[in-house]
Amino acid sequence: MRDAFDLLGVEPRFDLDGADLRDRLLTLAAANHPDRHTDPFDQAEAADQLSRVNEAYRTLADPERRANALLARLGGPSKADDKSLPPGLLLEVMEVREELEQAVAAEDHAAIARLRKWATDQRAQRLDSVAKLFATATADPAALVQAVRLELNAWRYFERMLDQMPG
Predict the structure, then answer these.
(1) 18: nearest Cα among 54, 60, 51, 55
(2) Distance of CA 150 to the CA centre of its chain
(3) Among 159, 141, 163, which residue's Cα sits nearest to residue 62?
(4) Residues with Cβ < 8 Å from 44, sequence gap 6 or more?
(5) Helices 141-164 and 109-135: crossing angle, nearest 10°?
(6) Long-range contacts made by residues 27-34, C-beta under 8 angstroms, separation at least 24?
(7) Which of 11, 34, 164, 167 has the highest Cβ tally under 10 A?
(8) Are 138 and 144 in contact (CB under 8 A)?
(9) Could you tell me which residues come within 8 angstroms of residue 164 by beta carbon, excluding any fewer than 6 positions away?
(10) Residue of 149, 157, 155 lying closest to 127 (CA atoms)
(11) Coil, strand, or helix at residue 32?
């Protein structure tokens, strides 16, 4: 089965051009639209392909999903297979969550905003780190995929924290 990079015909790398990605989606969507076919079998097949193309686009348009797809392509572990985190991260996140609970209970909007900014900054740092890791040529691919997985797992913690934060 072809992966998202192959389906959209883009080079498998992390730093993709969003406009090029969108152009490829539109071209493939037009070519695979079921209305272009009269035969019901061809329509069903086109609809199936269009669905795969749309999912490939959603994967590559989202930086976290794109990183996971690239990591899988490189033979790296999935988030289900490797849940490792940078040392001290779990304790730090637990402390921030406790502080957030107190801020929510006290309706301290300034503290909530400060913690939201902290989590947003942490997520951005992980994104930057993943981009730099993928851009770095390395003689040790195993070390690369492990380092990327570690950053993606941390990224997920901050993403989840931001999703759960109030307004």
Answers:
(1) 60
(2) 14
(3) 159
(4) 34
(5) 160
(6) 28/53, 29/53, 29/54
(7) 34
(8) yes
(9) none
(10) 155
(11) coil
Longest dimension (CA), the chain: 63
For residue 39, the model assigns a pLDDT of 72
User: Using an 8 Å Cβ cutoff, are 49 and 112 in contact?
Assistant: no
Closest-CA residue to 154 (of 119, 105, 109):
119
Identity at 109, one-letter amino acid code:
H
Residues belonging to the chain: 167
What is the value of pTM for the model shown?
A: 0.85
Sign of the Cα pseudo-torsion (40, 46, 51, 52, in order): positive
Residues of the chain with pLDDT under 50: none
**What is the model's pLDDT at position 49?**
85
* pLDDT, tens digit (0-9, with 9 covering 90-100), for 49-82: 889 999 999 999 999 999 999 999 999 999 999 9
User: Which amino acid appears at position 126 of this protein?
Assistant: R
> By three-state DSSP, how is residue 28 classified?
helix
Provide the Cα torsion 134, 136, 140, 144; round to 10°.
Answer: -30
